[in-house]
């Protein structure tokens, strides 16, 4: 009986493995289609944002764009147009500003229509895949052809909508609506840089050993000597001075203790002198722990009496002893002051050495900041730092705005506008998904955050619940919190 059941179990395991493999292939195929559409939609939005930023600029900024940011040929055409209109009543700047406004508005209109078409197509594809979601996993061979046929029909509708939506959307004009390449935008900077580099190369060649000149070798030696001198004066010598001073302090610790003992010996001697003088003048035994200040008051009182007859008391009185006690007190005060002064000088020696090393420290700190900024470059919302964190929070705000816009269209009965609005919601969620994935995995929040993003994309959930989810995302997840609220 057991032997009969084993082949059945093996066949069931093989069948389940085949079903899983087919479902995986179907999922990969559909993900590629969605990724292709999202990539094109992101590119359209990027170009649209570029032209919108140019449209919001001043007239001078638009004229600068028309002349200097469209390539060398546009620069020649713009310069020729300005020169040809320099006559009376020509108004070259006004003409260029008007032409720039027309060009930018034309591109914005074309890209807006194209974005609506792609967003509506994305929403329909997502709804179609979502409708067959369960059957795609259970029976991919049966349901996948229907999904692909539906997507193919949606592609045909997309082509028709792009070609018939507006006369601006002609295929050969779409390439002109893209955001210009970096080389086109900054061609003047690159040209000036190339010319400057060429002149610098010629100048270096004239002073190099290739033409028999030793100027560059001399400059290199001077720069090397200057760098070596800077490192020696502001790095090596201050550090050695600090090290030697610290070690010398430890080595002279025993000597310092002896200096303190010498001061203590002077203080003890003064105490004994005061005690003996006071006991003799008072004629009674005084306690050993009597304060020196109290005994000094007795000495000074006796001194004032003795000094009234100085010659007599100097020979037969206590005036000489009182003066010696005062000399001993001055000696103690002087030694105490010298000890404190010695400590101050030692501390200042270390301070001066540290001040000498400060230029090198600040230079090293500046280099460290520059290297850190170069290593941690701005990667948009996917990067690190406050700027990237702010961009991720703005993506959440963008999702909220798209959801409100979608719900507004639905409430007003605008089904067509609601379609492309839902597609823009999916596009914003895709950007948010890619921006937070790596950071959420590092903090262990990815499973919960991914489920929230998936919930926001579900078409059957109410908008009020989705807005609650976005509000919770901005408060709870570490990768979306403001920098000031992180602990």
From TrEMBL:
<feature type="transmembrane region" description="Helical">
    <location>
        <begin position="352"/>
        <end position="375"/>
    </location>
</feature>
<dbReference type="GO" id="GO:0005741">
    <property type="term" value="C:mitochondrial outer membrane"/>
</dbReference>
<dbReference type="Pfam" id="PF08637">
    <property type="entry name" value="NCA2"/>
</dbReference>
<keyword id="KW-1133">Transmembrane helix</keyword>
<keyword id="KW-0472">Membrane</keyword>
<keyword id="KW-0812">Transmembrane</keyword>
<keyword id="KW-0496">Mitochondrion</keyword>
<dbReference type="InterPro" id="IPR013946">
    <property type="entry name" value="NCA2-like"/>
</dbReference>
<feature type="transmembrane region" description="Helical">
    <location>
        <begin position="185"/>
        <end position="205"/>
    </location>
</feature>
<protein>
    <recommendedName>
        <fullName>Protein DGS1, mitochondrial</fullName>
    </recommendedName>
</protein>
